């Protein structure tokens, strides 16, 4: 699946395009977004097909939005065209590109075309090269796309907070005469998220958070490590079939380096910062360290079918969001997570993020476990329990069993209880977690470190559950109700 909505040029004639809800865009009547959701995307043209250079026009609208990084983590973000990252702008080498910025933020902004050698007045830095584009104002950027490959764009007014709040997106310039055709192409933009940094803090109308106030040198704290504005299973995976050749564009939009590692596959670095690497100089690696602002294009061949990790090798980054999968069509994991996979991919309890496996359907487990219909629906009791040492008290007259959440496992992972017992899940880890029954009958949402969630189980049978955000790290459990 292609990762980004591609921003089509104004007046473009693509019959597959469909309107998408971007209220201001609709009002302006300016923007049509194409959901580039078709599986795979073949690129590459023969010499005979290379079209002439043309003028391409786009509109980018900045506004404040609600953004869901993953279930349980909804934030206020600043976004281009209603999404984080902004839509992919895709043009061809030599095209004249005209992009109108419509600023609907309550603060001035601008756009820098990172990796594009544009004239100074089109480069974006506020103060040095242009005045800020004020709230409600428009500005037209115009340049010729002379630099091929993986480029990107981002805000360049107070970039420390504006990029951190979501103002960045990919810009890809296809060469006029591409030499390589890929079966599928993916773009992953890395960034970090600071839950203490809100638009109000950025505007100065709310105080800086207590942690950030203690940091020095303008550093922002980091709570989550993102790929394409999302974390954990909300990140769409790299889907491929055996024998396919895949291009993965890594782009670092954040402030930290990341060591992106692929399991089961080495990859070839075919471009750095968009520029093709000569064949004799290409490195074959399984981990690439990408610094802030950099891009690496990785070529990967589907020669080892399975379900594989693809993650940042700074392990606490992976623990807090920066991990996804290389997922072959029809493949199922070989570990204990396998029962949570369906023939078509993850079961509903896991596939709650991008919905990339299609509409919800009853999970057909590879290893079905009989879970009887509860006579009475289990009733979650008091959700926020105060401290690790004081889990939520069960209602009077009921038994209670405590299951501890430790990064990244349940302890004990298997328990047997009499019907009517309250199971209290207490998070004693450093990361937040969640608990969800595989049959969808109950789920906790986010449980902070030190927090707890309780559910009363009345019906005999076996209940399997997962942490919806760390199941790929092995966080599964089972309760047998007698
Ligand atoms: Cu990392």
From TrEMBL:
Domain Plastocyanin-like as annotated: residue spans: 65-177, 228-325
Region (Disordered): 349-400
Keywords of the record: Copper, Membrane, Metal-binding, Oxidoreductase, Transmembrane, Transmembrane helix
Lineage: superkingdom: Bacteria
Amino acid composition bias (Low complexity), ranges on this chain: 363-374
Pfam families: Cu-oxidase_2, Cu-oxidase_3, Cupredoxin_1
Domain EfeO-type cupredoxin-like: 395-481
Lyase recorded as keyword: no
SUPFAM superfamilies named among the record's database cross-references: Cupredoxins
Gene Ontology MF, one: copper ion binding
Biased composition (Pro residues): 375-394
Transmembrane segments: 21-40
Classification via PANTHER family: FI03373P-RELATED, MULTI-COPPER OXIDASE
Descriptive protein name: Multicopper oxidase
